[in-house]
Amino acid sequence: TSARYLKVRVSEIGGDQYAIFVSDISEQRRFANMRRDFVTNVSHELKTPAGAISLLAETITDAANDPDAVRYFSGRVAKESERLTELVQRLIDLQKAQDARGTLEAKRLSVLAVVRAAIEANRVQAHNRHIELVPSFDGKPVADELTEGEPDATIRCDESAITTAVKNLIENAIHYSSERTTVRIAITRQHQPNQPGGTVAIRVIDQGIGIPAASIDRIFERFYRVDPARSRQTGGTGLGLAITKHCVEDCGGTITVWSREREGSTFTIELPEVASQEEERQS
Ligand code: ADP
What we know:
By secondary structure, the chain is of the alpha+beta class.
C-alpha cells in the first residue's frame, strides 16, 4: 500500500483539556503531486517545439541566401507549429473531458451512427496509409452508409464524448500499424440470459506493433508513451488515451486493452445498452 499522509492538529478546548484532530490528507497530497507532474509535463512538451521553432528561425536567417535551405527549414517550422497547435488542442480536449462530468448531455444514440462518424473522421489518414477500416455488427459486415432495417444497438451517452473516444482509438490503430493492414471495428451486443439490459462492446482491433506487457498498465496515463521518440516523430502527444478514458467513463462505460507485441492491439469500450426510442414507446 502507498504511504499515508496525516495532518495532526492540537486544539485547546477549555480548561486544561486538549483535543487532537487527525485528518488523512493522502488523497489531497496525491492530487497535488499529480497536478505538479502534469504542469511539468505540459511545460516540457510545449518547450520542445517552441525551442525548435526559435532555432529554426535563426537557421533560416543565417541561410537567407540559400533558397533550398530556406524552403526546407520553413517546412520544419510549419511542422513544429502544427505540433504545438495539436498539443494545445489536445490539452483543451483533456480539460473538457475532465470537467465534463455532470455537464454532458446524455442522449440516446445509435452505436452504428457513432462508429460511422468515427470512421469517417479517420478516412483520409487510413487511405493515406492504405489501411482498410472494416466495421462489423455481431460479426456481420456493416455498410458504409445507413441502411434501412440494419441491426443496431442504442446507448445513452454524450455524442461528442463517445465519438471522440472511438475516433481516438481508430486514430491510434492506424498510427501504430504498418501500411496495408486492416483495422476492424467490431460491435457486439452481450446479453446475459434472463437478465434485463445488456452491454454493447465496441472493439478496435489492429494488426500493429502492439504494446509491451510492461507498458500496458500505463498507457492511459497523461503523457505516457511507450516510445516517446517514435511517437513525437509521428505527431503523438501521449494525451489521446487519457482523453479517451475520461470520455468513456463519463458515458458510464469502461475501456480495456489487450495487446501482444508485433501482433496487434484490441481496445474494448463497453457501454450499457438501453431501449431505443421505439422500443420505449412500445413498452
Ligand atoms: P499518442 O498521442 O502518443 O498516440 P496516446 O495516449 O493515444 O498517445 O497513446 C499512448 C501510447 O500508447 C502511445 O504513445 C503508444 O505507445 C501506445 N499505443 C496507443 N494505442 C496503440 C496501438 N493501437 N498500438 C500500439 N501502441 C499503442
